[in-house]
Amino acid sequence: MINLTNIEKVYRTSSIETLALNNINLNIRKGEFVSIMGPSGCGKSTLLNIMGLLDEPSKGTVELDGQRVSTYHDKELARLRNEKIGFIFQSFHLINDLSVVDNVEIPLLYRSTNGKPRQTYAKEALEKVGLSNRIKHFPKQLSGGQKQRVAIARAIVGKPEIILADEPTGNLDSAMGNEIMNILQGLNDEGATIIMVTHDETMAKRTHRLIRLFDGTQVQ
Amino acid sequence: MIRHLFKLIWNKKKAHSLLLVEIWASFLVLFGLTSLIVYNVRNYREPLGFEYQNAWAISLKSNEDTTELAQKIEMILQRVKAYPEVESASRMSNNFPFSQSSRNNGIDYNKKHVLADFYVTDENYAKTMVIPVVEGHWYRSADSVGKYSPVVINRKLKEELFGDEKPVGKIISERFKVTGVVNTFKSKGEFMVDKPALFELVDAKSPWDDLLMIRVKPGTDAVFEAKMVKAITTMVAGWSVEVDHLTDSRKTTHNLTLVPVIIFLIVSGFLLINVALGLFGVLNLSIAKRRGEIGLRRALGATGNGISQQFISEILVLATFALLIGLLFAMQFPLMNVFDIQAGIYLTAIAISVVVIYGIVTLCALFPSRLAARIQPAVALHEE
C-alpha cells in the first residue's frame, strides 16, 4: 500500500543542515495497524508527513498503491490526500468558527460533494464516533476527547483507505485515550490501514507492528 | 464551497464587523463621488447648444444717466455692428452664457406648469451665438404682432409642455407664441443639466436688457477691444463698459463645478487608499493567524490555488455583505428621486461603485492569498 525506499529528509537553513530522516525503508500493507515510536525530534512526524504527501523527501521514493508520487503535481497530490488519506492530529486542528458538522464536512468540500449528501455523510461519521448529539456544537464547547472524536469523524468521512494519526491520544487522559484507541481499532477492523505516531507503549502494543526511530534512523 | 465560506464569515461576524463598516462606508463615499462624476459626465456629453469661441459679452452700465436709455443702447449696438471686426451683434438680458446671473419663470400650457430659464434677446441672437433652430424659425421683429410676444423654446421645454405635439404656432402662458425650437441651450456650460429654456424677443424700447453679445472675427485682439470700449464711452459719457470673453467665463464656470469634484475625489481617494491598506493588513494578519487552518485544509485536499481562491472568496463574501447593506441605503436615492436626479445616474453610480469595491478588495487579497498558497502544510501543521 505505502512503500518507502531509501528515504532521506534534510532540513536546510542558510547555516545549518539537519538530517531528519536517514535511509528509511518501509512497506505498509493494506489493512495493517502500525505504530511509530521514538523520542522527540527523532523524525516521527516528518515520516508521517512524507507518507501523508504533505512533505517531500530529499532523497528516495514514495509509492502509494504501486505509483511513484514524486512526479505528481500539487493538484494530483491534493486529490490523493483527499481521497486516500485521513489525518488525525494531536492538537485536533478543528476550525473554531465552524460547527462540529461543518468541520467534519471539510474533506467532502474538496470533492465537490453536494450539500445534502455532504451533511448526511458527516452525520454518519459523527454517529460512528458517538457524537451525533453534538453536531451543532462548536469546538470550544467540547472536551478534549470529544474534539478528537470530531477529528476522527473528519478523517473518516471521505472513507479513506489510509488513516495517519499523529499522537492522537497525546492530549487526552488515559480513559479518553483508550476510547480513541478503541475507535481506531474498530476502523482498522473495518479494513482501514492505520499508521499512528505515539509516545505511549501501551497504545503501541495494541497495534500490529511497531516501528522505532532514533535520530532519523529506523532501529526496529 | 460558497455556502461554507458564508458560514465561516457569518460565524466570525463580530471579528469582521469593523471591516464590514469600513467597506460599507467606502461604498457610500464612492457612490456619492461616482454619482457626482456620472452626473457631470452625462451633462458634459450633451451638446452645449451654442458656440462660445470669439463671442464677447459687453455689459453696459448707465450709472447716473437715466435719459433715453433704450435709444442709447440701440445706438451703441448699431455702432458696434458697424465695426468690420464684428461678425454679428445682438442685445440680451444680463443672464448671458457663463454668467452668474439667472432668470426663470413658470410656463403654462394645457394645465401643465414648467419652470424654465428665461433669456430676453433680439432677432440676431441665434446668429450671434450660432444656435441651430431645429423647428420653425428664430423670431423676427415682424413676429411681434398682436398681443402675443414671439418666443423660441428649447427641446427640453418642448418635451415637457407639448410631448409629441408640434409646438410652433402654439400659445403658451397666454402671452407667448412659439415661433421655433432649438436643440439645447446650456448657458452655464457643459456641466449644466439641460433645463427647459425660453427665449423672448426683447422690447426695443425697454431700458433694462442692456447687455450686448457680439461675435468677432477669429484673431480679433485686445487692441480692438480697447478701441471699441473707448468709442462706446465716448458715445455715452458716464457709462461704464465691461467686456467678458466667453472662453474666459467658461473656464471660471467650469472651475466652479470641477473644484468641488476634484476635492471630493482627492478625499475619497485617500479614504480608499486607507481602506485598501487596512484590508491588506487585516488579510496578512488573518493569514498569519490561520496558518494551522491552511495546513489542515491542504492536508484534507485543498491545493495551493484552492487556498488562494478561498482567501479571495472570503474577502469577496465579506464585501458582498457590506455592499448589500450599502445598497439598502444607495437604492433610496433613485427610489425617492433625491436631488431630482435621473434614476439612471444613481444606478450607473451604484454599478460602478460595486465594481470598484470588488476590484479593490480583490487586489488587496491577491498578494496575501498568494502567500497563503505558498505555506508548506507540514510546517504550518507543526507550528500549530
Spell out the helices and strands of chain B N to C: HHEHEEEHEEHEEEEHEHHHHHH
Uncertain residue segments of chain A: none
CATH architecture of chain A: 3-Layer(aba) Sandwich
Question: How many angstroms does the end-to-end distance of chain B come to?
Answer: 24 Å
Number of strands of chain A: 10
User: Helix fraction of chain B?
Assistant: 40-55%
The arrangement of helices and strands of chain A along the chain is EEEHEEHEHHHEHEHEE
Percentage of helical residues of chain A?
25-40%
Instruction: Detail the poorly predicted runs of chain B.
Output: none
What oligomeric state do these chains adopt?
heterodimer
Q: State the CATH superfamily name of chain A.
A: P-loop containing nucleotide triphosphate hydrolases
**What is the CATH C-level name of chain A?**
Alpha Beta
InterPro entries (chain A): AAA+_ATPase, ABC_transporter-like_ATP-bd, ABC_transporter-like_CS, MacB-like_ATP-bd, P-loop_NTPase
Protein name (chain A): ABC transporter ATP-binding protein
Organism (chain A): Larkinella humicola
Domain ABC transporter (chain A): 2-219
What does it look like?
The complex is a heterodimer of chains A (220) and B (384). Chain A has helices at residues 44-51, 74-84, 100-109, 115-128, 144-156, 174-189, 201-205, and strands at 2-12, 17-28, 33-37, 59-64, 67-68, 85-89, 162-166, 193-197, 209-214, 217-218. Chain A is α/β, with parallel strands linked by helices and 220 residues long. Chain A has a single domain, classed as 3-Layer(aba) Sandwich (Rossmann fold). Chain A has a six-stranded mixed beta sheet, sandwiched between helices. In chain A, strands 2-1-4-5 form a four-stranded antiparallel beta sheet, covered by helices on one side. In chain A, helix 6 (174-189) links the parallel strand 7 (162-166) and strand 8. In chain A, helix 3 (100-109) crosses helix 4 (115-128), helix 4 (115-128) packs across helix 5 (144-156) and helix 5 runs parallel beside helix 6. Chain B is of the alpha+beta class and 384 residues long. Chain B folds into two domains: 2-45 and 253-383, no CATH class; 63-238, no CATH class. In chain B, 54% of the residues lie in helices and 17% in strands. Chain B has helices at residues 2-11, 13-45, 69-81, 125-129, 155-162, 222-235, 246-289, 291-299, 304-330, 332-335, 343-374, 377-383; strands spanning 55-61, 86-92, 104-109, 112-121, 133-136, 149-154, 171-172, 176-182, 197-201, 211-216, 240-245. In chain B, the strands form two sheets. In chain B, strands 3, 4, 5, 6, 7, 8 and 9 form a seven-stranded mixed beta sheet that branches. A four-stranded antiparallel beta sheet of chain B has the order 2-10-1-11. In chain B, strand 3 and strand 4 form a beta hairpin. Chain B is elongated. The two termini of chain B are 24 Å apart. In chain B, 37% of the residues are buried. Classes of the chains: A alpha/beta (220), B alpha+beta (384). The A-B interface holds A 45-46, 49, 52, 54-55, 74-75, 78-79, 81-83, 87, 89, 91, 93, 95, 97-98, 102, 105-107, 109-111, 115, 154 and B 1, 3-4, 7-8, 11-12, 292-293, 295-306, 376-378, 381-382, 384.
